[in-house]
Amino acid sequence: MEPRFDLMTNELGAKIAKRIYHVALAILQSPLPRDTQNLVMLRASQINGCGFCVDYHAKDATAAGEDATRLNLVAAWRESTVFTDAERAALALTEEGTRIADAHAGVSDDTWERAREHYDDDQIAALVSLIALINANNRLNVMVRNPGGSYQPGQFAALAN
């Protein structure tokens, strides 16, 4: 599969990517646990069918020390015992936030309340921002057909400058 367009070799695309990366850095540096961030990004990317992002976030999570069993069970988190109640609340919010067009009510009050039981104001700000950002990234990569398989952990570190 060949990409339709390489955003990183386009001047405007690279400028936008750098700004998106800086938003991601702000979330990464937030008090939302890194393991939760990785699970959220992986799950949204699975739902959206973004091969590049599934590859990216699975490899970054592995590099950060995430357990392979947990990564393999993210798509079946409801039927798994390896996630904390807080992670389960974040994954539920991720799924409803990602599938927002599929439900006329958007995110349910029950899902929101479960997330608020586990996350303070700064963490919830990071979590909802992360869900929105990963969905935007998924859509960018799916539209240009950026394929999965070649990502190397840390390859975008230069964007931080």
From TrEMBL:
Single GO term (MF): peroxiredoxin activity
Signal peptide as annotated in the record: none
Domain Carboxymuconolactone decarboxylase-like: 18-96
Sections of the chain in a coiled coil: none
Pfam families: CMD
Protein name stated in the entry: Carboxymuconolactone decarboxylase family protein
Source organism: Streptomyces hainanensis
